[in-house]
Specification:
The complex is a heterodimer of chains A (about 220) and B (about 350).
Chain A (H helix, E strand, L loop, with lengths): L3 E6 L5 H14 L4 E6 L12 H6 L3 E3 L19 H4 L5 E6 L2 H5 L6 H7 L2 E6 L9 H15 L5 E4 L9 H18 L3 E6 L1 H5 L8 E4 L10
Parallel strand pairs in A: 1-4, 1-5, 2-3, 2-4, 5-6, 6-7, 7-8
Chain B lengths: L3 E4 H11 L4 E4 L7 H9 L6 E4 L3 H12 L5 E5 L1 H16 L4 E7 L15 H5 L10 E3 L4 H18 L2 E7 H5 L1 E4 L36 H21 L3 E4 L6 E4 L2 H16 L4 E6 L1 E3 L3 H5 L7 E6 L6 H8 L5 E5 L8 H12 L4
Parallel strand pairs in B: 2-3, 2-4, 4-5, 5-7, 6-7, 10-11, 10-13, 13-14
Antiparallel strand pairs in B: 1-8, 6-12, 9-11
Helix pairs in contact in B: 1-2, 1-6, 3-4, 9-12
Classes of the chains: A alpha/beta (about 220), B alpha/beta (about 350).
């Protein structure tokens, strides 16, 4: 079965890296994937920067109506985004811009999204100062639900320190996500991290594990 | 304190507040807008004020006024916005006031682009304002170094009563890295700010903040006094990093983002047995001329790598004093060089231009 997955959260929590890694994984499994880059908040580090690599894997990448050019600081969203939302043959990944303000753009498509059914997933990185505790995470969770007019269906544990991430870091993030889960009833849907950090997790850890491909980060960074 | 993951722009804001910055005046411009945004959210929490001015010119003049009270104050912008601030920067330097100015450089000239560049090297180290003034200019190469230097910058600004600039590029502003706010950063002994306009309370003569000296003799004396400060900076404030220099046949000179790219190139070349090193200025004014001058005998070439058409190369040449050929490779306009571009250029130089 195909789904719409809306990836959202605080800016800098790792939404884009997660979205691209997930798109690549699904494409490698032979699924028909569309990735919609709806980030019109910040022109740096958007998934469209990796359009070429994704398209090479057969992923349909949709961003601005003016093309994927990374230098366009314009709130131009392509109407093409509606296509895969209404096409049940597609697994749709929607990569939203950061924070409440970034989530606002999805409202234009929310009726179509609701009609088909969706998952909206909150990316949480406990090492981001603004989302280091339950109250901080709840602020973003409530703010994004308010502006997007959609409801969260799950959480993504994405607690990391880029290349330095260890299994202990992931477990610390899992702890925070469990508290949020207890308070909201939202399940932990994914745990994402670099493969070496995922490798040490206990076998019975909840959530699907998604290895991060570091697609957005050049090796020299 | 443990590590947190921060974007360059917000890390600068957090570091400034940790250093006691209470006032921020600015105007949004990509790619540094997260910094004013951070200050607008966080300064009120520490009893400070964030104010979005009507323009960059207004913002720097608000900095001028606030700095006169002796409180710690900052502004930030990106290339064309910094160009607009130049008059104010010259006034602040002339009036001998401390402040910290952040420039997150984007492609130029003019409005240019919103992608990262290093083409404000001249604007930062030579300045666009009038007169014989200088800024202490830090060019960090990581978000951690940025966090440390922003805090140090406030001390240096107070100590020298002079603006200090933190020079980054769009990549340094936008990229994320783990950072730690250290408790043990070196703190300077700072004199009482007896020059600040804090009200006489009828107890003393008014303090005057001014950069106008109509008598030529007085202005000359003022300039001589300023020059002594700049000489002291040259003596005491030079910072740099050397990497694999000792036996190098070729040394790459690069700062900030391009130094990271160059370091990746050095590692790649060293693995292939090619003797290459990296010289990374951390202060671009004062410039570490002596490092270039005194490079080991083994060094036959210097390669300057910049995200510009070549600006720092002039300082490398000054330091080099004609000893060795100085080469250049770079990208501009918002394009980022790859480690491979640097590797190819090094190979071309060492193979005699082939």
């Amino acid at each position: 079965m195909t789904t719409i997955k809306i990836i959202t959260g605080h800016y800098g929590s790792g939404k884009t890296e997660f979205a691209v890694s997930l798109a690549m994984q699904l494409a490698e499994q032979g699924r028909q994937v569309a990735l919609s880059d709806l980030d019109i908040v910040n022109p740096y580090f958007r998934s469209r920067e990796r359009a070429e690599a994704m398209e090479a894997k057969g992923i349909r990448v949709i961003s601005s109506s003016l093309g994927h050019a990374s230098t366009l600081d314009l709130p131009a969203v392509s109407a093409e985004i509606r296509g895969p939302i209404n096409d049940p043959d597609y697994d749709v990944i929607m990569d939203l811009g950061g924070d409440e303000v970034g989530a606002r753009v999805v409202v234009a498509f929310s009726e179509d999204i609701k009609r088909r059914g969706y998952e909206m997933l909150l990316v949480i990185n406990a090492y981001r100062p603004e989302t280091s505790d339950v109250a901080g995470v709840m602020r973003y969770l409530e703010g994004i639900e308010y502006t997007s007019k959609l409801e969260f269906t799950g959480l993504i544990v994405n607690t990391h320190l880029i290349w330095d991430t260890t299994t202990e870091d992931v477990l610390a993030g899992l702890e925070l996500a469990r508290e949020v889960s207890k308070q909201t009833g939202l399940p932990i849907r994914y745990i994402s991290a670099i493969p070496s950090a995922l490798a040490g997790l206990p076998e019975d850890t909840e959530g699907e594990q998604l290895p991060i491909g570091m697609y957005m980060r050049d090796a020299w960074m | 304190m443990s590590k947190v993951l921060m974007k360059g722009n917000e890390a600068i804001g957090a570091a400034a507040i940790a250093a006691g910055c209470k006032y921020f005046f600015g105007y949004p411009i990509t790619p540094q807008s997260e910094l004013p945004e951070y200050m607008s959210a966080h300064l009120p929490r520490v009893g400070g004020v964030y104010l979005q001015a009507e323009s960059e010119v207004a913002a720097i003049n608000m900095v001028y006024g606030a700095a006169g009270t002796g409180k710690r104050v900052m502004t930030s912008s990106s290339s064309p916005g910094i160009a607009l601030k130049q008059e104010g920067i010259s006034y602040i330097a002339g009036a001998e006031l401390p402040c910290v100015i952040v420039n997150i450089v984007r492609g130029g000239p003019g409005l240019g682009s919103i992608q990262p560049a290093q083409s404000d090297y001249n604007q930062s180290t030579r300045g666009g304002g009038d007169g014989d003034y200088r800024l202490l200019v830090y060019a960090p190469g990581s978000i951690q170094e940025m966090v440390d230097l922003v805090q140090i910058a406030f001390d240096k600004a107070d100590y020298y009563r002079n603006p200090v600039m933190v020079l980054g590029d769009g990549m340094m502003g936008q990229m994320m890295e783990p950072v730690e706010f250290k408790d043990d950063l070196p703190k300077m002994e700072l004199p009482e700010k007896d020059w600040a306009t804090t009200g006489t309370k009828g107890q003393r003569k008014p303090n005057v903040i001014n950069s106008l000296y109509l008598a030529a003799e007085e202005l000359e004396q003022h300039n001589i006094r300023l020059q002594k400060k700049y000489d002291e900076m040259k003596q005491n404030e030079v910072r740099y990093e050397e990497y694999q220099i000792e036996d190098a046949e070729l040394v790459i000179a690069a700062y900030g983002t391009t130094a990271r790219i160059a370091k990746a190139a050095v590692d790649q070349l060293r693995e292939a047995g090619i003797k290459v090193g990296l010289f990374r200025p951390i202060t671009v004014w004062p410039y570490p001329y002596d490092v270039v001058k005194n490079l080991p005998e083994s060094v036959k070439h210097i390669l300057c790598v910049e995200m510009s058409m070549g600006q720092m190369i002039d300082d490398v040449r000054i330091g080099n004093e004609g000893q060795r050929p100085v080469h250049f490779v770079g990208r501009s306009g918002g394009m980022i060089p790859t480690p491979q571009l640097v590797v190819d250029k090094v190979n071309e130089i060492l193979n005699g231009g082939k």
